[in-house]
Amino acid sequence: MENKDYSVITVKENLLIENDKKADELRNYLTKKGIYFINVMASPGSGKTTLLVELINSLKKDYNIGVMEADIDGDVDADRITKLTGVRSIQIHTSGACHLTASMVEDAIKQFDISNLDVLILENVGNLVCPAEFDTGAHLNMMLLSVPEGHDKPLKYPLIFQVSSIVAITKIDTLPIFKFDTKLCKEYIKRRNKDAEIYEVSAVKKIGIDKLVTALKRRIDR
Ligand SMILES: Nc1nc2c(ncn2[C@@H]2O[C@H](COP(=O)(O)OP(=O)(O)OP(=O)(O)O)[C@@H](O)[C@H]2O)c(=O)[nH]1
Ligand SMILES: [Mg+2]
Questions:
Q1: Pocket-testing residue among 48, 50, 123, 169, ligand 1, by greatest number of atoms within 8 A of Cβ
Q2: What percent of the chain has pLDDT over 70?
Q3: Which CATH number goes with the domain that contains 195?
Q4: DSSP assignment string, 47-71
């Protein structure tokens, strides 16, 4: 029994080491090409695509943007992005996987002409656990926590908060409906990652979008 546990752990460690190596290679490759790669992670339905539409419509004046939409199935998000922003997008199907590895991103990039891009955005599979474990090769991890999910999520899903430099608290227009303590939530986030920048936004009511756009521009232009 002990041996079995040990071998399972070794396999996972090797997988993650291999992935980290591939992710570093990919990041260096994109840096050399002058492409800033943003990985967006969050729960299903937390408002990723809706927020991305708002962010892209602000950023597209200054940058050439491409979007990779990762889902287990369906192509509604890639379709929404292209229809609502006019930027190019590609849908990645993960064959049932709940996250993307750096190799999967590399494969997708081979099928998506990124030569003229300044910014590449990945909407990762909706999940608060697996995507956080796998470095995608992104320069920036941005995660979203929506008000209806509850302020306690940083206590339950530590890793995704630890690896994300930007945390957007989304759907703040719903604060009057849900019991969500923003101050406490921010404290919990800072417990996981004291350097995390936290933004409060509503994509539907267009609140807080400009501040988040400014934060992204600062990083892209660095
Ligand atoms: N009230 C409110 N609803 C929002 C906001 N942003 C998104 N929604 C709603 O939340 C639902 C899910 O939004 P999506 O943008 O599709 O969420 P997602 O995270 O991309 O979803 P998946 O890709 O399926 O994981 C939709 O009904 C949106 O209209 C917001 O700021 N306020
Ligand atoms: Mg989506």
A1: 50
A2: 97
A3: 3.40.50.300
A4: SHHHHHHHHHHHHTTTS-EEEEEEE
